[in-house]
Amino acid sequence: MSLAFELTPHPSPVDTKTRARILSNPGFGKHFTDHMITIRWTAEAGWHDAQLMPRGPFQIDPAASVLHYAQEIFEGMKAYRGTDGRIRMFRPQENARRFNQSAMRMAMPEIPEDIFLDAVGRLVTADEDWIPAGSGSLYLRPFMFADDAFLGVRPASSYIFCIIACPVGAYFKGGDSAIRLWVTPDYIRAAPGGTGAAKCGGNYAGSLVAQRQAIAQDCDQVLFLDAIEGRWVEELGGMNIFFVFDDHSIITPPLRGTILPGITRASLLTIAADLGMTISEQPYSFSQWEADAASGRLREAFACGTAAVVAGIGTVASPTGQFTIGEGTTGSVTTMLRDALMNVQRGETPDRHRWVYSLS
Ligand code: PLP
Ligand code: COI
Predict the structure, then answer these.
(1) Is 238 in the pocket of ligand 2 (CB under 6 A)?
(2) I want to staple 182 with a disulfide (CB 3.0 to 4.6 A). Which of 29, 219, 259, 290 is the partner?
(3) What is the number of other CB atoms lying within 10 angstroms of the CB of residue 113?
(4) What tens digit of pLDDT does each residue of 111-134 get?
């Protein structure tokens, strides 16, 4: 299925000099490209009114249900410019699938995968001059929200799907240096039966008070434990987590409905298995983590996600104290896995699993 798009090029796009200045140091999530995609959905007309237009504010009714009941979902994905000049995306079909899983959980309409992929491709192509060369990338943020003007609590009957894009470099201010985690004793991210596996804005809103604690503790990210026993490591506010034991064995917490099923997580499990490592999705407790870090059995730990890629975890702080993993720096297995992943994403290594989606 495809939709006819109305195309409205930006009448005054950002000038070449300003764009070059932004691309030389894009940071994360603060500079945006010239265009955006919008597609509307109503119960009567389904998906319609597809537009590629100048990026700009929405005008929405103050009673729009997203503003009251947070019926909103999003995705995060990237386009890369390879050293051969070609533009590639990484497993965007998985983002389309997860978007629809999130839509189902939040009682929102699913968007056909080919419409999602067509829309993403159109925006990347329209704003391709915004894809940084070198190690940066173009971050794409597809999202959908309910814009019904109605205060009764029920699934809305009108939605806007939108994609915006921004050139990005490193997610963390420290660049590639190992990050510091804060283990929150006070807050949970997700409980069984809740929305933990969906990428909905409300999950992130609920995590912010813990992220604020993390920042106050000079930490980069908050780590959440499970809701039932407060014992098992789940994930970070915006990333999955892995543990490395000796040089060839990694574990990551299993997907039991409370963790976001990360596409980076799934890809790293495959890459690690390809490299002959032993992989395991198994529960890992915070106390075991602390003991394994102290004994040296645990060599490395890392966070992973589209925005962060792969980030070594150096220190873990909690109200009972803090501990260091290995030397407190990004370890060699972490670096090897990160390089292997990035080389596929940028088309610098054979794509044995057909993960690369070429746009040019
Ligand atoms: N966990 C959370 C809570 C996230 O926000 C993200 C980022 O999207 C991830 C995990 C990693 O998912 P992915 O690798 O698909 O980007
Ligand atoms: C992503 O990695 O795409 C996310 O959505 C996570 C967020 C921390 C930016």
Answers:
(1) yes
(2) 219
(3) 16
(4) 999 999 999 999 999 999 999 988
